[in-house]
Amino acid sequence: MAISSGSSSFAGKAATRVRLTEIFLSIQGEADSVGWPTVFVRLTGCPLRCSYCDTAYAFHGGEWFRIEAVLEKVASFDTRHVCVTGGEPLAQKGCLVLLQRLCDAGHQVSLETSGAMDVSTVDPRVVRVVDIKTPGSGEVARNRYENLALLRPEEQIKFVICNRADFEWACEQVRTRHLQERCMVLFSPSSGQVEAGELAQWILDARLPVRLQVQLHKYLWGDTPGR
Ligand SMILES: C[S@@+](CC[C@H](N)C(=O)[O-])C[C@H]1O[C@@H](n2cnc3c(N)ncnc32)[C@H](O)[C@@H]1O
Ligand SMILES: Nc1nc2[nH]cc(C(=O)O)c2c(=O)[nH]1
Ligand code: SF4
Ligand SMILES: [Mg+2]
Q1: For 182, left (φ over 0), alpha (ψ -120 to 50), or beta?
Q2: In what order do the strands lie in the sheet with 156-161?
Q3: Of 7, 14, 66, 143, whose CB neighbour count within 10 A is largest?
Q4: Which residue ranges does the record assign to the Radical SAM core domain (predicted)?
Q5: pTM over 0.90
């Protein structure tokens, strides 16, 4: 194809770099792959400001890396599972290429994403974990509910519950949108706001077909960045 100097040819060019906060090896603390040794790739920047965000250090800063260099670093950990997170990973164009390349390299890849971005263009080999933002997050207006119809049975929807009103709102979403028929639905307590045992009892009392998730890494290591 001829190289044009028009702006459209640049718009169509595949991204080759991502802005990165950290890459580290840890135990997956969330979602269906909880417990697996996992390499975390945390991309920088997020257009949301959830009240409870435990990763605000990824909003700014970071460094640009070539996707090739990220792949090399990931490979150096010799680990099958890779989790791409942030910040909001899908806010960067290069994320889609990175996900594709991680799959090509044979990794089992999961993506942690807010419900605020379009997830339709993510490589189908990636397991998408889509957070539906609750009223307590302060970002409920950002949810793209059209994402939910795209999820496959092995993918996941997550609600981070900040209080009893969030729980009731999330129950309503599960019931009216028949979410449990679509894929696994996770309820996670917002750390420091709701006790895991309290949320467990609410789920049991409501006879809700959802899975309780705790952030295992916080039980292991507290709220330490890079863990
Ligand atoms: C840091 S976010 C990064 C990915 C993406 N921006 C998102 O919100 O899904 C990863 C996950 O951690 C959750 N999370 C952040 N702070 C939390 C907290 N204090 N307690 C429980 N979950 C939290 C988010 O809701 C999200 O599901
Ligand atoms: N150990 C560990 N597991 C995680 N699963 C999702 C995480 C995230 O920040 O998205 C995360 C994290 O920050 N650490
Ligand atoms: S969308 Fe994710 S990274 Fe962004 S503020 Fe909310 S929890 Fe934090
Ligand atoms: Mg985290």
Answers
A1: alpha
A2: 63-66, 17-27, 37-43, 81-85, 108-114, 127-131, 156-161, 184-189, 211-212
A3: 143
A4: 33-223
A5: yes
Q: What is the DSSP secondary structure assignment for residue 113, as one 8-state letter?
A: E
* Cβ(86) – ligand 3 distance below 6 Å: yes
CA distance 111 to 20: 15
**List of the chain residues with pLDDT < 70:** 1-12
Asked if residue 151 lies in contact with residue 145, where contact means CB atoms within 8 angstroms, the answer is no
Instruction: For residue 87, say whether it is annotated as part of any ligand binding site.
Output: yes
Pocket mutation for ligand 3, best pick of 40, 41, 44, 50 (most atoms within 8 Å of C-beta)? 50
pLDDT of residue 34: 98
**pLDDT value for 13:** 78
Domains and CATH numbers, the chain: 16-221 (3.20.20.70)
ipTM for the predicted complex: 0.99
The 8-class DSSP code of residue 178 comes to T
